What we know:
By secondary structure, this protein is an all-alpha fold. Helix content is about 60%, strand content about 0%. The chain folds into 3 domains: about 1-110, no CATH class; about 120-255, no CATH class; about 255-394, Homeodomain-like (Arc Repressor Mutant, subunit A, Orthogonal Bundle). Helix 8 (about 160-205) runs antiparallel to helix 9 and helix 11 crosses helix 12.
Amino acid sequence: MLQQQQPLTGNGPSSGRGLGLSGHPGMHALNSVHQASQHRSDGGDSGLEGTENGHETRRDIGDILQQIMTITDQSLDEAQAKKHALNCHRMKPALFSVLCEIKEKTGLSMRNAQEDEPQDPQLVRLDNMLLAEGVAGPEKGGGAAAAVSAATSSGGMSPDSSLEHSDYKSKLSQIRSIYHTELEKYEQACTEFTTHVMNLLREQSRTRPVTPREIERMVGIIHRKFSTIQTQLKQSTCEAVMILRSRFLDARRKRRNFSKQATEGLNEYFYSHLSNPYPSEEAKEDLAKQCGITVSQVCNWFGNKRIRYKKNIGKFQEEANLYAMKTALVGQGDDSPHTPNSTGTERRGALRCATCLPPGRSRPHSFPSNGNWQGRNSPPNGASPHSDHSENSD
DNA sequence: AACGATGATTCCCT
DNA sequence: AGGGAATCATCGTT
């Protein structure tokens, strides 16, 4: 193949034209061929060397190369015209095949340069995280909801915090929308750029050999470049979600006092079950519903209340009396105003605790003797030992 | 700002 | 797992 091209590139040292090519990086390979053929021409045994025909051919080639080299210095119209002229040049097929030859040689070195690399583990991690946070993946899926529920699972959500909840969700969807807009932009830009480059290569393939593999490789390079940009986008999106999430969790710690009604409801239950202030699961749920708080908040409240009451009964005396009075007032007309819960005469607002104590056993408003209701680890409901049945009010 | 009240968290026990 | 106890962190009042 190369042998066939030898005469075509057989510029003698005297020709002068095309020698300026050696400085051009793109023409380096071509020039080496040119130099190789020079040796042969020095020998003077080439068929075309020294003949009129040979001189003409060399001039032709020199002309072509000169035109190629100066094509970038020309205006667009001029260049287009030149390009067209070159395409129609009678020597073009020969030059083209030389270029093919060179490409074949140089292409070998880059053949295995970049094979499809395994997927970046970092990218996989980012993708997974975005999917888990509900940023990537299907719209309005369980992702965001799951993330929120996971973030709030321990504390539960009060109506107050449900505001923060929706705030979190709206912020997350904001991030989501920005992420998708940017991603779309990048993808569009990538597609546009790829198309542009492919068109360029196709255009160039008229004057130089461009293999499909080369185009493929180029596309791969472009995609990799855009993929790194996408990774950056994913990374910053993840960071934004993390910041949002930490802020949200911090906000969860910001407690707010319960509403007056909620506290009243809880206190009513507490003081009307003072002998055994351990609401059953069912009672807790009812209390939670009634007070607009979560079951875990009810648990916290009772835990705190029991401890604090026990620690300082005197301090709570007044409060206990107050609620005793309230209960008594509501229970007016009833034959046993001091046994509101056990007989189902508990006041309207306070929780009826069907599962709390067996009928007739409960003695409300009673103090725990020596600061203990049942001692540690007593059964919460029903089987209350009732260490003390003394009334704290009358 | 100080202080008490209070909801939440954590650790430990049974 | 549920509760007691200690503690933290914030709220609301003074």
